Amino acid sequence: MIVSATQAVSVQGTTQIMLLFGLLAVLPSLLMVMTGFTRIVIVLGFVRNALGTQQIPPNQVLVGIALFLSLFVMTPTLRKVDSAAIEPYRHHTIDSHQAIVRGLEPIRTFMFKQTRDSDLALFVKLSHSKRPRTRADVSTHVLIPAFIISELTTAFEIGFLIYLPFLIIDMIVSSTLMSMGMMMLPPSLISLPFKILLFVLVDGWQLVAQSLISSFR
User: Fold this and answer.
1) Between 3 and 110, whose confidence is greater?
2) Residue range 19-70, pLDDT digits in tens
3) d(C-alpha 99, C-alpha 38), whole Å
4) Buried-exposed string 65-77: b where 16+ CB fall within 10 A, e elsewhere
């Protein structure tokens, strides 16, 4: 009996380790598709392109900023996951299946809040599922692509608003150069310092971070 109990504990520990390694393997994908990372990194890319600074900030810096802003946005949700699933599982009050179900609920709530009804209806239709009566009836595999599409749409809307002031500067500089007969001089060479100056004067990075975080409220 003692040997059997020891073997059972060993098998359980091995299973937990395998599940942990499996989770670590898919964690980057989950981070991109089930959090605000996609919206944040796309908007930061729009900011860099609107400034016209080529690869400044570098991709690694943008990804790092997006990662920590995503963690900041997701902290309340992660705390709910910890209290509802991780802590009970660590204290052996629930099994692994219950922990997954409970842990998904706060994340699903976050995704529902950021998902447009039209996108959700589209993927419900494409999945040939019955029309859900409540959010609980919506499968996670239907919710995730709807959430991703909504995040892309929101990111492009924010990116459009970011582009407008810089586009105006480009138009003013281009018109000025044409009126002076300096058509051979690239407008971007002249407009770049003005765009950077404007961005610094209005404390652009603070405004971008504030707008991104507020968009998840």
Assistant:
1) 110
2) 666 666 666 777 777 888 889 999 998 888 888 887 888 888 888 889 899 8
3) 26
4) bbeebbeebbeeb
What b/e readout covers 16-38, taking b as 16+ CB neighbours within 10 angstroms?
eeeeeeeeeeeeeeebeebbbbb
d(CA 203, CA 52): 17
Residue 128 contacts residue 139 (beta carbons within 8 Å): no
Predicted confidence (pLDDT) at residue 7 exceeds the cutoff of 50: no
Taking only the tens place, the pLDDT of each residue in 184-207 is 666 667 778 888 888 888 888 888
Residues 6+ away with beta carbon under 8 Å from 170? 187, 188, 191
Write the CB contacts of 116 (distance below 8 Å, at least 6 apart in sequence). Answer: 146, 150, 153
Do 103 and 86 contact (CB within 8 A), yes or no?
Answer: yes
57, 205 Cβ separation under 8 angstroms: no
Paired tokens of 140: 């996670």
